[in-house]
Amino acid sequence: MNRNKDVESQDIKQRMQVSRRDFMKISSMFGVTSTVLAAAAMAGVITAPRLAKAANSVYEKRFKTPAKYNLKFGGADKDARMLLMNRIGFLDFCRDLEERSDGAIRIEYIGANQISTEANGVSKCQQGIIDIFGGATQNASGSAPYYNVLDFAYMFPSRASIYHFLYSPASNRLLREPLRKRHGIHFLFSGVEMRNLFMGLKFKDAPLITSIDQLQGTKNRSTGTQLGIITMKLLGLNPVPVAWEETYDALRQGLIDGQESIANAIPMANMVGVTSQMVGLEFFPGTMHTAMSAKVFDKLDAQSQEMVMESAYYTQSYIQGLNEATMVNFTGATMPPVEGTEFAKGGVRVSLFSAEEKKKCEDMASPKTNPKPWETWRERLNKMAGDIDVYTEIYNVAHEIPVDMRADTVEPRRWWKN
């Protein structure tokens, strides 16, 4: 793991000495994508003059030759500053693909909900408004139901098991091909966390939550995933669908008790101030993925398709270690949080459930131990996948590696090659 990059991800708030006004001014001269790519690659303190010079250099490099393909990337609410704090691969993929293709493929990155949101990224891509989109698979599942296949309760025992599945050639048959066939989506890569519960300020002075019993009757924001909602109901967490953009105010006003989310999203969305506890349920994946229109991918020539896949592979392996480091060294998703992290500074307490308590939750919600509530969705997803038992097959792949394997040690593989 590259320690320099780990440190850069930690102190980006201190390094970024550019006002929003100056950032917009520089972006207007050299384009948002060139400016964002320049900032993402800079070391040291980022001032307006340094950023302008770097953006100019990136701009000249990107536009030195005419592009064969121009693609639009809808990054939902992830603006430049968010992506510099939490490198989930959006910009790294853009930069690598443009460099790998020597400018033949040029990507216009559009974030800050200007062209697509977490909720409508899939539909905007299907409609041809954007060519590539990024966001949580759990939000995408509202428009593309097959994404739910990732969200069976406790199907994945760890972050490492999710990486292992995404790198496995089995993911083609169990995830990627059904998404192409049913929804016209070409799944590229994903940031990986496990989804946990993040409690609001009502629990600031309450005892640390170490048992699912302490959460009974609470009201918690849920994403669009239908299977995640089933899980929360089985655990007694009373899911309430709330748009991501409205979650901060809902927590601040006490309209909800908590939310299910991923750790790195809390500081990225400035929610540390309305969060008191992180409760480590780890009940289903938090997969912040990037995908593109299958029609657009299929129109690329063979060489360009191979470059897209190689850039997706590079980005997946690059963010694998970086995201793990960000969770520990920037966010503070450890028990206790590392000194100087966002959770430590904000007073967010972390409770990682014991193995016994996680087993108790698993027995309450897992399709293996409580199959009845899952029957309808299992049948639906099995049909969408071509009449195969997708839950059992993904579960088996996820359990091919040791349960205690570290996520950053999972071996990267080119999943599209046997």
Q: The CATH topology of the largest domain is what? A: D-Maltodextrin-Binding Protein, domain 2
How large is the share of residues in beta strands? Answer: 15-25%
Mean pLDDT: 91
Number of DSSP strands? 11
End-to-end gap:
27 Å
The name of the CATH superfamily of the largest domain reads Bacterial extracellular solute-binding protein, family 7
Assembly state:
single chain
Category from helices, strands and their pairing = alpha/beta
CATH architecture of the largest domain: 3-Layer(aba) Sandwich
Shape: globular
CATH class of the largest domain: Alpha Beta
Word description of this protein:
With 418 residues, the chain is of the alpha/beta class. It has two domains: 3-193 and 287-329, D-Maltodextrin-Binding Protein, domain 2; 195-285 and 331-407, Bacterial extracellular solute-binding protein, family 7 (D-Maltodextrin-Binding Protein, domain 2), CATH 3.40.190.170. It is built from 20 helices and eleven strands. The strands form two sheets. Strands 3, 4, 5, 6, 7, 8, 9, 10 and 11 form a nine-stranded mixed beta sheet that branches. It is globular, with a radius of gyration of 21 Å.
Task: Kindly summarize this structure in a few lines.
The protein is α/β, with parallel strands linked by helices and 418 residues long. The chain has 2 domains: 3-193 and 287-329, Bacterial extracellular solute-binding protein, family 7 (D-Maltodextrin-Binding Protein, domain 2); 195-285 and 331-407, 3-Layer(aba) Sandwich (D-Maltodextrin-Binding Protein, domain 2), CATH 3.40.190.170. It has helices spanning 3-10, 12-15, 20-30, 32-41, 48-62, 80-85, 90-100, 121-126, 137-140, 159-167, 170-183, 226-234, 244-252, 265-268, 294-299, 302-331, 342-346, 355-365, 375-384, 390-398, and strands at residues 16-17, 46-47, 69-74, 105-110, 132-136, 185-199, 220-222, 239-241, 258-261, 277-293, 349-352.
